[in-house]
Backbone:
């Protein structure tokens, strides 16, 4: 259980954020100089060196998006030019990749960040560059929305496993649909059928809230409010729900903590996006009040579960709440996470994602009329998690210039044994993943803007419609 030991203001984290961006610059330069593009996308480190891993191509946007975040955070123009160049040179195949559910990861982190920086007037962008990014985002959102499985009450974007499979991760890839819709685009299907991307966004979010997030109503023997199932399985003939499953978690009836974190952040971001849409635009989907009711409940439930049950006292979780080795870690939830134990790995990448979800939910609650105390509870939790990860005396931020990763002790796929176990250890530790490095930078950028009273960071650049 997370112990928020004292009040923190965003400005309190600025020295640690500055140090993180200083370290980050060398990591980005080193990886770009050494990575061979023919290997595909860098995924996670082994012995401090990034490696590719054939499963799906979902991490390249984090690599080049990190350079753009570095520019956003520091103003160092070399990183803007690096992110621009690599997006143009290498990201086009991701726009039309019909085999993945990860368009929000790859394309919003690159084309979307360039578009946002232009809208915020952080960079000089010609009309053609803006149109280039907008066209890319329109295409990406429509391609993502085409991976559609119909349910009696709506449907969902299915995972790379096939049309029977709903992944909790995909809630954050809804950013692609949101931007495409916001740019006035739609999906055209057979016989010129016009498909609303906003409708698919809302239906997917609703399916995730209904099936991926537990409500504590006794759906099965392990139903605890705020738990998440990594994968939900359906009969594609009649659309009936069959049960939970997992790919990267320990079991269908435990909680893979990175999946939990994706839900926390994904719902909080979509709450922010829908808040700037017009009431009449939301009316066909039940209206703003009804949408807010179930979307806030999904965000709050997952954040509450993270705080109370998934994380250790310092806000960092182990990789799964049901991981069997936790039984040997007496009172693990009441003390700081220990990445050097001999039983189960922590997942710092889950913490980096969750920190941003907590921060955004706290702000959204306050902005939409909730009590200041209620919003502050989540914001303080988010600041606590981020400070743990950035602590110069802590184990998570990599200061070794030879290590290509930024955020140490991330876990990729524990069940498949893909994570590196160093000599002398029984468990994976000391390595990084592109998603963890990226989300640490993104959370730090969000808090830096809050501390400096700069424009609030959103993927949709504060646009209304």
Residues:
């Amino acid at each position: 259980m997370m112990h928020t030991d004292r009040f923190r203001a965003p400005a309190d984290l600025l020295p640690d954020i500055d140090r993180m961006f200083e370290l980050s610059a060398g990591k980005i330069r080193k990886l770009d100089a050494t990575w061979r593009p023919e290997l595909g996308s860098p995924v996670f480190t082994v012995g401090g060196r990034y490696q590719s891993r054939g499963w799906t191509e979902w991490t390249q946007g984090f690599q080049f998006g990190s350079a753009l975040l570095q520019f956003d955070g520091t103003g160092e123009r070399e990183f803007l030019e690096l992110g621009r160049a690599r997006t143009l040179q290498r990201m086009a195949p991701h726009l039309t990749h019909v085999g993945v559910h990860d368009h929000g990861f790859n394309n919003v982190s690159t084309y979307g960040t360039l578009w946002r920086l232009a809208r915020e007037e952080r960079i000089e962008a010609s009309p053609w560059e803006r149109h280039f990014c907008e066209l890319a985002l329109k295409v990406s959102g429509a391609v993502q929305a085409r991976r559609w499985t119909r349910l009696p009450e709506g449907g969902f974007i299915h995972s790379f496993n096939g049309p029977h499979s709903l992944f909790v991760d995909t809630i954050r890839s809804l950013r692609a649909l949101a931007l495409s819709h916001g740019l006035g685009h739609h999906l055209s299907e057979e016989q010129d059928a016009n498909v609303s991307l906003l409708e698919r966004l809302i239906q997917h979010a609703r399916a995730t809230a209904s099936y991926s997030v537990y409500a504590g109503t006794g759906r099965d023997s392990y139903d605890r409010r705020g738990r998440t199932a990594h994968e939900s399985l359906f009969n594609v003939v009649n659309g009936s729900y069959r049960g939970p499953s997992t790919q990267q978690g320990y079991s269908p009836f435990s909680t893979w903590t990175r999946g939990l974190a994706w839900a926390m952040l994904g719902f909080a971001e979509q709450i922010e996006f829908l808040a700037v849409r017009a009431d009449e635009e939301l009316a066909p989907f039940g209206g703003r009040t009804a949408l807010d009711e179930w979307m806030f409940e999904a965000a709050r439930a997952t954040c509450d579960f993270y705080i109370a049950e998934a994380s250790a006292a310092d806000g960092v979780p182990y990789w799964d709440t049901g991981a069997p080795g936790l039984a040997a870690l007496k009172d693990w939830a009441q003390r700081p996470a220990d990445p050097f134990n001999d039983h189960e790995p922590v997942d710092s990448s889950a913490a980096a994602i969750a920190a941003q979800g907590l921060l955004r939910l706290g702000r959204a609650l306050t902005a939409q009329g909730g009590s200041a105390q209620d919003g502050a509870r989540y914001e303080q939790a988010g600041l606590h998690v981020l400070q743990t990860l950035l602590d110069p005396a802590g184990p998570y931020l990599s200061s070794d210039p030879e290590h290509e990763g930024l955020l140490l002790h991330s876990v990729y796929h524990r069940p498949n044994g893909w994570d590196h176990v160093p000599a002398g250890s029984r468990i994976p530790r000391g390595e990084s993943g592109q998603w963890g490095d990226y989300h640490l930078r993104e959370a730090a950028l969000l808090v830096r803007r809050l501390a400096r009273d700069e424009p609030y960071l959103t993927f949709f650049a504060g646009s209304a419609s």
Remarks:
- The mean pLDDT is 97.
- Strands lie at 44-46, 49-51, 148-151, 154-157, 165-167, 187-189, 193-195, 231-235, 240-245.
- The radius of gyration is 20 Å.
- The chain has one domain: 10-451.
